[in-house]
Amino acid sequence: MTIQTMNEAIPYLYSSLLRAQPHHIAENDAITRAPHLTRKLLETLNLLPPKEKTILVTGSKGKGSTSRMIAAILRRLGYKVGLFTSPHLIHYNERIRINGKAISDEKFLYFMNSHAPAIDDITGRIENPKHYLGPTGILLSIALAHFKEEQTDINVIEIGRGGTYDDTNVLENKWAIISKVMEEHVGYLGNTIYDIVSHKTGIVKSMTDHVIIGKQTNDVMTYIKSKLSIEASYYGADFIPSLLRSDLSGSYFDCLMSKSNYENLFLPLLGSFQTENAALAIQACETIVKSAIPVNVIQESLESLKWPGRLEVISKDPYIILDGTINRVSAEYIKEMLPLVDSKKVATIIAVPENKDYEGVIQVCSKFSHILVVTTPEHSHKNFPKDALEVARKYHAAAQETKLLSKAIDLVMQEKATTIFIVGTQSMIGSAKEIWKDSLMDIG
């Protein structure tokens, strides 16, 4: 059967996972995930690139932004850059880009149909009922086919979850990038922060030449250093950003790097964590090209950067700010926006899935919100907490609940909020982008 539309393609992507899910009694990636199936698919299709073409990026926060920045800088240096990220906000195509432009529906469906016989053969031979050929593995095959056909020079691949057992980690990678690691996906990646770090450092393999480590807590950094035996660059020792000032247009900062110093850089993204991501990306690019990078290249790369849903201001009357916040630590960064906006009447709309730190996000946001609304996106396959309102009222007695984001927006607009934060999972941000009719197919 030929897959005709993207709406038909999505269920096919998830079909193997859905067959296996009833057998997933334990949420443990070491038991349920089977990256060897993805490797088999890529070998069958002759899509495994040499390590010199692959940069793997993992972490708990900032890996998507860092991947995007690395791709932007390398593109400005003259490389043709493939970029594979997740999740998407509106369209699955957003996950696969070359020089910022998403793959078309036609190309996506062409490669999916071309790969279907191999996919069906592999899934038909799975013996362990817990195992599955994951949607990330199938998407990776489409991305690599697109990159191969378009002859990209280098590919930036964001790890989906964890590292060791992620489908993307079947690729040989010359470079490994690790952004901030926090407690996340507990169960899937283990029960302690050290288990999670072990998963993340799994992208550093025998063929990896260099690893670049972003900002970490002291205990995490110490543990990472104890696990690495190859050449590495570390935040705070080899590269250090300094935030100079911020306004609603973005952040101004300096970077002291291992090969050069870059002064008064401008990044049209908000939040001090984004300057940390930028420093990590610059260090990665210096490592890849083995030299300092002309400051105009860095500046032009960052000035034109678009990365939606990361403290993104989409309106100023009233102020409306979107952020993909799913844990307490990320929510704390939202407070940096308060001096930059009209804070007389702040409304926060929250939709965090039940398997994320929804209570942490609610607790932090309740401290600066006059109006607090918990809701769900218009479209999402995730499960949202049934006790969200109960939890919200622990911290904000007047908290309210609506069934859909659109209703929540209507509610806070009627309350004449001066600033509205819309925070939560990426599908929530995608719903907001759809409401404001914002296309994400070409982000430059």
Keywords:
444 residues, alpha/beta, UDP-N-acetylmuramoyl-L-alanine:D-glutamate ligase, Protein-Tyrosine Phosphatase, Chain A, 2 domains, six-stranded mixed β-sheet, 15 helices, globular, magnesium, Mur_ligase_cen
Task: Report on the architecture of this protein.
The mean pLDDT is 92. Helix 13 (388-395) links the parallel strand 15 (371-374) and strand 16 (400-401). The protein has helices at residues 6-20, 29-32, 35-44, 63-76, 105-124, 135-149, 193-200, 218-227, 272-289, 295-303, 328-334, 358-366, 388-395, 405-414, 426-435, and strands at residues 54-58, 81-84, 96-98, 101-102, 154-158, 175-178, 210-213, 231-234, 240-247, 250-256, 261-267, 312-316, 319-323, 346-351, 371-374, 400-401, 419-424. The strands form three sheets. Strands 4-3-2-5-1-6-7-8 form an eight-stranded mixed β-sheet, sandwiched between helices. A six-stranded mixed β-sheet has the order 12-13-17-14-15-16, sandwiched between helices. By secondary structure, the protein is α/β, with parallel strands linked by helices. The two termini are 35 Å apart. The chain has two domains: 6-303, Mur-like, catalytic domain (UDP-N-acetylmuramoyl-L-alanine:D-glutamate ligase, 3-Layer(aba) Sandwich); 312-435, Protein-Tyrosine Phosphatase, Chain A (Alpha-Beta Complex), CATH 3.90.190. Its EC number is 6.3.2.7. Belongs to the folylpolyglutamate synthase family. InterPro entries: Folylpolyglutamate_synth (IPR001645), Mur-like_cat_sf (IPR036565), Mur_ligase_C_dom_sf (IPR036615), Mur_ligase_cen (IPR013221). It holds the Pfam family Mur_ligase_M.
